[in-house]
C-alpha cells in the first residue's frame, strides 16, 4: 500500500462548494446594496453641513472597500473550492492572505487620509 498517496478533493465536493460560494456571494451583494441604500437615505435625512458632506466621501469609500474585500474573499473561497489537493489548497490560501493583507494596508492608508481631509474641512465655530 503506497504511503504517500496524495489526498484529492472529490469533484462533487468542489462543485458543491462552488455553488455555495455563489449563493453566499449573491446574498452578500444584496445585503451590501440594502445597507448602502439605507445609509444613503439616513445621510440624506440629516441636515447638510461641512461635517456630513466631508464624511460622506469616507462612508462611500468604506462601502466600496467592504464590497471589494468581500469579492476578494468570495473569489478566494471559489478558488479554494476548486483546489484539487491539500498542497493546492495551502498555496491558494497563502497567496490570498498575502494579497488581502496588502489591500487592507492600502485601504487603511487611504481611509486615514480621507478622514484627515474630512476633519480639516470642518471649521471650528468661533
Report on this model:
Helices cover about 80% and strands about 0% of the residues. The protein has helices at about 10-45, 50-80, 85-120. It is mainly alpha-helical. The radius of gyration is 21 Å and the shape is elongated. It has one domain. It contains 3 helices and no strands. The relative contact order is 0.14.
Helix content: over 70%
Low-pLDDT parts are none
Over the alpha carbons, how many angstroms does the gyration radius reach? 21 Å
**Tally of separate helices:** 3
Largest sheet: none
How widely separated are the two ends?
A: 84 Å
What does this entry show, briefly?
By secondary structure, the chain is mainly alpha-helical. It has one domain (11-121). It has helices at 11-45, 50-81, 86-121.
Keywords:
126 residues, 0% strand
SSE arrangement:
Layout: H1 11-45, H2 50-81, H3 86-121
Amino acid at each position: 500500500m503506497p504511503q504517500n498517496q496524495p489526498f484529492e478533493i472529490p469533484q462533487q465536493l468542489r462543485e458543491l462548494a462552488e455553488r455555495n460560494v455563489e449563493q453566499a456571494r449573491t446574498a452578500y451583494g444584496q445585503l451590501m446594496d440594502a445597507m448602502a441604500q439605507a445609509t444613503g437615505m439616513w445621510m440624506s435625512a440629516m441636515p447638510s453641513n461641512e461635517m456630513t458632506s466631508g464624511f460622506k466621501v469616507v462612508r462611500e469609500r468604506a462601502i466600496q472597500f467592504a464590497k471589494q474585500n468581500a469579492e476578494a474573499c468570495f473569489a478566494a473561497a471559489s478558488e479554494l473550492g476548486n483546489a484539487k489537493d491539500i498542497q493546492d489548497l495551502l498555496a491558494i490560501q497563502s497567496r490570498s492572505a498575502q494579497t488581502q493583507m496588502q489591500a487592507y494596508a492600502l485601504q487603511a492608508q487611504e481611509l486615514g487620509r480621507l478622514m484627515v481631509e474630512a476633519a480639516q474641512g470642518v471649521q471650528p465655530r468661533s
